[in-house]
């Protein structure tokens, strides 16, 4: 167990956690202490930059009095913590909560009942920079160690610098939450944020299930390959890389970069010398994986003509001048409101929401209320009468 006294050091001096939880008894003692806490700041650390399977490798918890790190690899059962997070009497504070909530749901079935997302609050408060580092610097003169943003949190033991970085991620969240809530109240936008927080409570893991046969097309530049044979080689080498990364539990790009994949697909090398001459292909990878890569190239080159991969192009909808005009009027309304309150137009109302309004234009306030993409606060800000005018011409 790691114990670090808060002592008399400045609150702004970066420091490690008050405790590092590494066994079940410590976790149960922690959850007992948390029983009376009205709010908990929460964060997680994963390792998608390093591992094939991303998962939670560290959980950070802060109250107004202490900051604790939990090693989920070292405890048997996180249900006691899950019960605290799901307690409707406990406010859970996160920064940019969406991904944390998704992987906590996926890995542990965690859900939170009362959320406060400091990133959303900062956006709605009109903060010019809403990253946690920028907000901590502005409000508390705290500098996070950016070098550790992509640290390998799956490694053990965690270094002292990693523990300090992780602790700082949640230590100031309760105080930051209070600063931002005060600002939102002053602006009359607290209700806006609370509506967004309620929507966050429904976030669940929605990752892919099973094999995605067209995953290789997500590589930047893949859809620009016009030759189906080149795409077949890319698909085969991509699958080899994915299988290898899975076996090594390593992030795929750490096995072979995307630039190298595209270069191999274009060149279709048939021997080690040609592979070594391929752009973005280091000699070390040729030595380590050369034969396997050439086998994948051969697989792609051997695909029969009728089995070559095709790209399903989106069929463009027929031109609809009336729709375009409705959308343009809605954007003008949105932009005017954004200028009035000095907020980014995309935050006031995203284009996707405006498109939903323009696509099937509502004729009454009741129909406006039934558009799922439109928040209540957005509707109030834009105004039913003005929306109906914009979509009706």
Structure, explained:
The protein is 50% helix and 7% strand. Strands 1-2-5-4-3-6-7 form a 7-stranded mixed β-sheet, with helices on both faces. It has 393 residues and is an alpha/beta fold. It is built from 19 helices and 7 strands. Strand 4 and strand 5 form a beta hairpin.
Key terms:
single chain; 393 residues; alpha/beta; 7-stranded mixed beta sheet; 19 helices; disordered N terminus
Report strand order across the widest sheet: 1-2-5-4-3-6-7
Instruction: Specify the biggest β-sheet.
Output: 7 strands, mixed
Strand content: 5-15%
Query: Could you list the spans in which at least 5 consecutive residues all have pLDDT below 50?
Result: 1-10
Number of helices: 19
The Cα radius of gyration reads 26 Å
Q: In oligomeric terms, what are we looking at?
A: single chain
Q: What is the average of the pLDDT values?
A: 92
Write the H/E string, N to C.
EEHEEEHEHEHHHHHHHHHHHHHHHH
Helix percentage range? 40-55%
Distance between the termini: 68 Å
Tell me, briefly, the overall form.
flat
The chain-level structural class is alpha/beta
What's the β-strand tally? 7
């Amino acid at each position: 167990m790691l114990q670090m006294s808060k002592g008399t050091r400045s609150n702004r001096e970066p420091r490690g956690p008050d405790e590092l939880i590494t066994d079940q008894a410590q976790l149960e003692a922690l959850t007992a202490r948390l029983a009376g806490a009205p709010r908990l700041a929460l964060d997680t650390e994963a390792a998608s930059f390093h591992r094939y399977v991303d998962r939670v490798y560290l959980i950070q918890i802060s109250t107004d009095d202490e900051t604790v790190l939990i090693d989920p690899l070292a405890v048997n059962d996180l249900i006691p913590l899950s019960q605290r997070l799901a307690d409707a009497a406990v406010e859970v504070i996160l920064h940019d909560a969406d991904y944390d909530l998704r992987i906590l749901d996926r890995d542990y079935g965690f859900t939170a009942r009362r959320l406060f997302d400091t990133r959303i609050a900062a956006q709605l408060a009109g903060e010019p920079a809403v990253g946690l580092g920028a907000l901590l610097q502005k409000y508390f003169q705290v500098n996070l160690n950016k070098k550790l943003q992509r640290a390998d949190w799956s490694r053990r033991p965690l270094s002292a610098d990693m523990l300090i970085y992780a602790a700082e991620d949640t230590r100031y969240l309760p105080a930051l939450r209070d600063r931002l809530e005060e600002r939102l109240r002053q602006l009359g936008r607290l209700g806006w944020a609370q509506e967004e927080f309620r929507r966050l409570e429904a976030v669940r893991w929605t990752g892919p299930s099973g094999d995605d046969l067209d995953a290789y097309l997500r590589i930047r530049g893949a859809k620009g390959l016009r030759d189906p044979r080149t795409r077949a080689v890319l698909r085969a080498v991509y699958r080899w890389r994915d299988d290898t990364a899975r076996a090594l539990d390593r992030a795929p790009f750490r096995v072979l970069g995307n630039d190298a994949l595209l270069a191999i697909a274009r060149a279709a090398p048939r021997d080690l010398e040609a592979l070594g001459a391929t752009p973005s292909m280091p000699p070390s990878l040729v030595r380590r994986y050369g034969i396997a890569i050439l086998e994948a190239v051969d697989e792609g080159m051997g695909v029969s003509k009728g089995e070559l991969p095709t790209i399903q192009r989106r069929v463009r909808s027929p031109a609809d001048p009336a729709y375009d005009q409705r959308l343009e009027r809605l954007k003008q309304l949105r932009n005017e409101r954004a200028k009035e309150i000095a907020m980014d137009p995309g935050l006031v109302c995203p284009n996707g929401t405006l498109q939903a309004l323009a696509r099937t234009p509502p004729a009454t306030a009741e129909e406006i209320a039934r558009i799922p993409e439109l928040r209540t606060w957005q509707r109030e800000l834009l105004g039913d009468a003005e929306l109906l005018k914009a979509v009706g011409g």
